[in-house]
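User: Can you write out an input/output pair for a complex, sequences first and structure second?

Assistant: Here is one pair. Inputs:
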Amino acid sequence: MFNHRILATLLTIVVGISFISPAAAEGASAEMLSNTCLGCHGPGGISAGPATPTISGMSELYIIAAMLAYKYDNDEDKVDAIIEADAELEDVEFFARTSTVMNRISKGYSEAEIKTIAKHFADLPFEGANQNADAGQAKAGAALHETHCEKCHEDGGSSAEDDAGVLAGQWVPYLEYTMADFASGDRDMPKKMKKQMEEAHAASGDEAVRDLIQFYANQK
Ligand code: HEC
Ligand code: HEC
């Protein structure tokens, strides 16, 4: 699976690289700053898949938290110091993240630019990926989601308001890599999410993750 991930990411980069412009100048507009992101995250921030998440319609705080974790290579003390020094970042929560490319990309942006970019994408609409899902598995996943995930990923995982990303409509490969990173401990999750993941696994075994992913994939 790891090799697939590298391949998928490389494909993304080959497509993405042609869009990458030189480091944006101080005071550049939100649009100019965000253009660099579209090569990989898709026109309008809607990903053409499969290993890259759609970032439009996510909350500002979620995008900022992700960019800071990438930029500072998961140095929690450093990120917490930045959050503490800026009243606007008060509600940003640090979680360590795995990264193939974002660690390098995020270093090209100042905190002020990251805030500008985050607002830009948060204001754009989310659009679910056009993909097929297994109806039976999605139904089983819906029940698991309701019991274990809905509390923090509201409206079937489609709400951005809980600052926990947007799950409904993301590409299956991205969700698979992400769930594998959580399971291996390479990516941090909130303690309560970890507990719910374990309970979902206890209830439905290895099929729990598959069914949950099909449930998210089934929503457009
Ligand atoms: C070369 C391709 C590429 C470019 C350019 C790129 N990204 Fe990413 N982005 C990715 C990939 C792949 C991931 C998944 C994490 C990883 O592997 O690094 C990701 C993950 C993210 C995430 C986490 C989303 C989630 O669901 O948790 C955010 C936020 C993000 N990128 C924002 C941006 C912004 C903002 C820009 C422009 C400043 C940008 N990206 C430019 C490929 C790219
Ligand atoms: C206690 C609240 C909570 C619960 C319960 C919870 N989550 Fe999360 N989840 C979060 C938060 C907060 C994040 C963002 C972490 C970060 O920024 O890296 C997240 C992130 C995620 C992501 C990554 C999104 C992305 O775009 O990369 C996935 C996938 C996910 N959760 C799936 C689940 C599933 C499946 C369940 C139920 C089994 C669940 N979560 C239960 C709070 C929760």
